[in-house]
Amino acid sequence: MDEFLTDEQQADRAKQWLRENGVFIAAGVVLGLGGLFGWQQWQDYKVRVAGEASVVWEQMRSAINGDRFNEVNETLELLESDYAGTPYLDQARLAMARMHMDRNSPDEAIEQLKLLAGGGMDAQLRRVAELRMAQIYIYQGEYDSALAVLGDISSPAFAGFYHELRGDIFFAQGKPELAAGEYQLALDLDASGYTDRSFVQIKLDDVRGSLAVTVAES
């Protein structure tokens, strides 16, 4: 599976989220607990919870790297039950999805990505989850499902990869003209550098070459 955001970029997004929103983003909850415990106590609580969640997330990453599957599940369950209001649960679902793919368990990967796409705290990570689901559906040959989960372009940052995936789908469906158009859009609209431009160009050249041969033979 391609990485859309590096570990460092994901960590930066988590830190930014915490700076901007704290642990919970619902204003009513903030005001309610702030009045109950006092502003300073509330701030101390947020810092403590964020620190605890960070520790659990690092434990989970270590368990993944060590292929300790039972420990991975335990730390994920802890994040879900005690730290669902932090960005670390989003990161955990992405990591779980990748681990399941490494273990050749695409259906389990999709389940984690669906949870993130449907309830993640970060809009950009929700889109990452959708794109990764589309990749898995393509891998499984479920092209209609891949197109459905891709939907419309909702984030210009991922426009290049969005069109590359659509190109892959159309190519697999035997629609080279549509595939070529999508690959060209992938190159034209890749403003964020998430797309491997050289690889997309190879695919575009290959599709155009096959179209030229078809025309010549007709």
Q: What is the strand and helix layout of this fold?
A:
Layout: H1 7-21, H2 27-37, H3 39-65, H4 69-82, H5 88-102, H6 106-119, H7 123-140, H8 143-150, H9 159-172, H10 176-189, H11 197-217
Helix pairs in contact: 2-3, 3-4, 3-5, 4-5, 5-6, 6-7, 7-8, 7-9, 8-9, 9-10, 10-11
Short key terms for the protein model shown above:
218 residues, mainly alpha, 0% strand
Q: What can you see in these coordinates?
A:
There is one protein chain. By secondary structure, this protein is mainly α. 78% of the residues lie in helices and 0% in strands. About 5% of the residues have low confidence.
Summarize the structure.
By secondary structure, the protein is mainly alpha-helical. 78% of the residues lie in helices and 0% in strands. It has helices spanning 7-21, 27-37, 39-65, 69-82, 88-102, 106-119, 123-140, 143-150, 159-172, 176-189, 197-217.
**Tertiary shape:** elongated
Beta-strand content bin: under 5%
The SSE string, one letter per element, is: HHHHHHHHHHH
Number of continuous helical runs? 11
Largest sheet: none
Work out the number of β strands: 0
Please state the average pLDDT score.
82
Using only C-alpha atoms, the radius of gyration works out to 21 Å
Low-confidence region ranges: 22-31
CA(first)-CA(last) distance: 38 Å
Q: How much helical structure, as a percent, in the residues?
A: over 70%
Counting helices, strands and paired strands, the structural category is mainly alpha
